[in-house]
Design a protein that fits this description.
Blueprint (H helix, E strand, L loop, with lengths): L2 H13 L3 H35 L11 H5 L5 H30 L6 H8 L1 H4 L2 H11 L6 H9 L15 H26 L3 H9 L5 H28 L3 H6 L11 H11 L3 H32 L4
Length: 307
C-alpha cells in the first residue's frame, strides 16, 4: 500500500469520528501526564522497595534472605509490640470516643467549644505531645506521681516510661490520646446521621436510656466504629515518632515496634534490604486490616439484605 493511500484511509477514518469520540481521545491525552506522574510517584518507589527487599546486604543477587530474617528473634517481638500498641490504643480511643460523642451530641451550652477541644490533640505536634507525657510521667516532679503520692495511691514514685512493666501501658495511653480525635470525628459524624425520628419512635415504644443505646444507637454506629478502629489501628501500628520520642524502644526493647525496627535497620545498621522487608510488612498488615473490614462489612450487608 502506498503512502498516499495510507494517508487517504487515515483521513477517511479521522473524518468519520464523532464528537463524542473526539472528546474521549482528548480526555485520554489530557489525563495522560497526570497518570504518568502518579505512576512515577507511587508505583516506581514501591517497585524499588520490593526490589530492595530481595537484595541481602553485601550481595547483588536476588533472594529471600531478608524475609527469612523476619522469622528471627528481632522481628517477632517488634511485631507483637506493634500489635499490642495498635489494639490497645484503639480500644481506649473507642471507649472514650463513644461516650464523648453521645455527650457532645446533646444540647449543651458551649458544646462547640468542647467539640473543638476534643479534636485538639490531632493538631498538637507530636514532639509537644511527647514532651508533655515525659513531663507528666517524670519520677521526680511529674504530675502523675505527685497526684498518686498526694492521694495515697502510690507510696513511692514510679518510673512510668522507665519500668519494663509500665512502659507499654504508658505508650498506649499516649497513642490513644493522640489518636482520639480521628475516632471521635468518625463516630460523631455517624451519630449525627441517626434520624431523631428513630429515637422518638423508640421512646414511644418504651425504649429509654440503655435500651436506646443497645438496640438503636450502637447498631447504627457499628460500621463507623469498625472503620474508625481499622484506620486508627493502622495509624498507631505504623506510627514511629511518638514511641521513639517517649522511650526509644526501651526499656530493654519492651516498646520496640516495627517502624522503629525499620529505622534502626535503615539508618543505624545501614541495611536497606531488611528495612524494606519490614516496611512491606507494615504495608501488608494495613492492607489486610482494610480487607478484613470490607469483608465484614459485606457480610453484614448481606445479612441485612442489602447490596
Amino acid at each position: 500500500m502506498r503512502v498516499s493511500e495510507r494517508r487517504s484511509l487515515f483521513g477517511q477514518w479521522w473524518s468519520s469520528l464523532t464528537l463524542d469520540i473526539y472528546m474521549q481521545i482528548a480526555g485520554i491525552v489530557l489525563v495522560f501526564p497526570a497518570i504518568f506522574l502518579l505512576l512515577a510517584l507511587l508505583i516506581a518507589p514501591f517497585t524499588f522497595i520490593i526490589w530492595s527487599s530481595l537484595i541481602k546486604k553485601g550481595e547483588t543477587g536476588l533472594g529471600l534472605a531478608n524475609y527469612s530474617w523476619l522469622l528471627g528473634r528481632t522481628f517477632l517481638p517488634s511485631l507483637k509490640n506493634s500489635l499490642i500498641i495498635g489494639v490497645g490504643s484503639v480500644a481506649l480511643e473507642i471507649l472514650a470516643a463513644v461516650p464523648l460523642a453521645l455527650l457532645l451530641n446533646q444540647r449543651l451550652y458551649g458544646r462547640g467549644i468542647f467539640r473543638a477541644l476534643v479534636t485538639l490533640p490531632w493538631a498538637v505536634p507530636t514532639i509537644s505531645v511527647a514532651a508533655s507525657f515525659l513531663w507528666l510521667s517524670n519520677t521526680n516532679y511529674g504530675l502523675f506521681n505527685q497526684i498518686g503520692l498526694a492521694s495515697g495511691i502510690l507510696s513511692l514514685p514510679l518510673a512510668f516510661l522507665g519500668d519494663p512493666k509500665l512502659a507499654m501501658p504508658a505508650v498506649i495511653v499516649a497513642h490513644a490520646w493522640k489518636g482520639l480525635p480521628l475516632v471521635f470525628i468518625i463516630i460523631f459524624a455517624a451519630l449525627q446521621s441517626l434520624p431523631s425520628e428513630h429515637l422518638e419512635a423508640a421512646k414511644v415504644d418504651g425504649a429509654w436510656g440503655l435500651s436506646q443505646l443497645r438496640y438503636i444507637i450502637l447498631p447504627h454506629l457499628k460500621t463507623a466504629i469498625g472503620l474508625a478502629a481499622v484506620l486508627s489501628g493502622i495509624y498507631n501500628f505504623a506510627l514511629f515518632d511518638l514511641t521513639f520520642l517517649l522511650t526509644g524502644g526501651g526499656p530493654s526493647g519492651t516498646t520496640m515496634t516495627l517502624p522503629m525496627l525499620e529505622y534502626n535497620q535503615m539508618f543505624r545498621s545501614l541495611d536497606t534490604g531488611r528495612a524494606a522487608a519490614v516496611g512491606l510488612t507494615i504495608f501488608l498488615v494495613g492492607v489486610l486490616a482494610l480487607a478484613l473490614l470490607f469483608w465484614l462489612n459485606t457480610q453484614d450487608r448481606k445479612k441485612r439484605g442489602l447490596r
